[in-house]
Amino acid sequence: MSTTNNSIRVITPEGGAHEPFTDAKAAVQRLKELYDDACAFLCDSFEGTVSGDKPNTRFRAFYPEIVLTTTSHDQVDTRLSFGHVAAPGVYQTTITRPDLFRHYLRQQIALLIENHDVPVHIGYSDTPIPVHFAVANNPGITVPQEGAMSFPLRDVFDVPDLSSTNDDIVNGVAQRSESGAAPLAPFTAQRVDYSLARLSHYTATKPEDFQNHVLFTNYQFYVEEFEAYARQMLADPDSGYDSFVGPGYHRITAADQDLPQPMKLPQMPSYHLTRKDGTGITLVNIGVGPSNAKTATDHIAVLRPHAWLMVGHCAGLRNSQRLGDFVLAHAYLREDKVLDDDLPLWVPIPPLAEIQIALEQAVAEVTELKGYELKRIMRTGTVASLDNRNWELRDQSGPVQRLSQSRAIALDMESATIAANGFRFRVPYGTLLCVSDKPLHGELKLPGMASDFYTSQVSRHLLIGIQAMETLREMPIERIHSRKLRSFEETAFL
């Protein structure tokens, strides 16, 4: 289709009117057809112009969208925390990569149709697809280096618009669209595409390989333990796991296969123990610091995981703790600062009962300690997260007083960030840490300090996280995605 805008001809693929659907599978198929056609149009146009002179034409394609219109105030089944809208009106969301999100989309659309007894309408939106994202999904296209083209790319194609790529919806400050429609999903298509591109860059793995259960760690040892566990699972035909994926897009499907290591690891290498339905486990080594923790969770959140947990090392703050003891966080002292603009400090980050129980049960099963005996190796309490790794080298009176007043029992740099971003993005979260030093009591992280107890506990730590995730996998979705993470004005999509 050709239109003229300010004397520049704009060519777009044919779209047609929005179509109603009462079958979720058919609706997702139509989303895929529209998206594939739009991307194919952009890729073909890009290849046809990239090596030539600047055309006197602009090429534009649009994201598909889902539109829901309700007129009834009838009360729907609200036992689920998602799948319904709160009031009559028009709700809309743009969609990208329907192939990647097909199961998620089918579930969310089916609930809308069932709960409101109205069709959803599928068609093209008025939000252009940036050519970068369309081309990135086509491995057959070679993108020239910057400056190699004879004209600026943005003169002919739409490029990412950061002014409209934001977290306003999840932060609760989103305005209605110009048409008056309210948001239907927590992320717009362009925000999702932005994060999918960032995930590949930071983790050197594909978004398709990420699983619904994500473990974060800040220590390389856990990666080695995770690979060893993965090989055990691949050797067991009844485990339900079918592959193990590492950085560099390398995949093994048998326990005795070599897993090539890239020459240079990415900033946050990720490893995926996969199941066919996506309910496997992903491990992300985020390294040290709240900035990395925020970056990883900002982007993984668009994949709508069922849970994420922090399993890392921490400083124990009580003299009664030993190196190797576990800390199960039930509150967070947030001094990491990276989320202050998105989630004010006065917002509480509550413990989630389902996660807490799963973690405590996993500790008991792996260590074979129960009840009162479990207190020998694990404490439950407040975890403080700071943004200064060497806080001990400054005047300690302020930090120590705050740590004491908060009743904190452990300190790290990532856990509060991961929990707070889980709360912000409505992703169930939890924290189980292992004490690796006690700075207030003269036991610093120095060579030779590791005891047999500490070494054995570290080996068990990852297994506990994995076992907790396997427990959560068997939990009904309405329990793990409970209403405590949802506000009174929420998107219908999870």
Features:
30% helix; single chain; five-stranded mixed beta sheet; alpha/beta
Helix content: 25-40%
Estimated structural class:
alpha/beta
Spatial extent as radius of gyration = 24 Å
How many DSSP helices?
Answer: 11
Q: Work out the strand percent.
A: 15-25%
Characterize the main sheet. 5 strands, mixed
Amino- and carboxy-terminal Cα gap:
35 Å
Give the H and E element order: EEEHEEEHEHEHEHEEEEHEEEHEHEHEHH
Shape category: globular
The pLDDT mean sits at 89
Strand order of the largest sheet: 3-7-5-6-8
Low-confidence region ranges: none
Describe the protein's architecture and organization.
The protein is an alpha/beta fold and 494 residues long. Helix content is 30%, strand content 21%. It has eleven helices and 19 strands. The protein has a five-stranded mixed β-sheet with strand order 3-7-5-6-8. Strands 15-18-17-16-19 form a five-stranded mixed barrel, surrounded by four helices. The longest helix has 26 residues, at 24-49. It is globular, with a radius of gyration of 24 Å. The protein starts with a strand and ends in a 14-residue tail after the last helix.
Topology:
Layout: E1 2-5, E2 8-11, E3 19-21, H1 24-49, E4 57-59, E5 62-70, E6 89-94, H2 102-116, E7 120-128, H3 131-136, E8 182-183, H4 189-203, E9 213-217, H5 220-235, E10 243-246, E11 250-252, E12 270-274, E13 281-285, H6 290-300, E14 307-310, E15 313-316, E16 326-335, H7 353-367, E17 378-386, H8 397-405, E18 408-412, H9 415-425, E19 429-437, H10 452-473, H11 477-480
Parallel strand pairs: 2-4, 6-8, 9-13, 9-14, 14-19, 15-19, 16-17, 17-18
Antiparallel strand pairs: 1-2, 3-7, 5-6, 5-7, 10-11, 10-12, 12-13, 15-18, 16-19
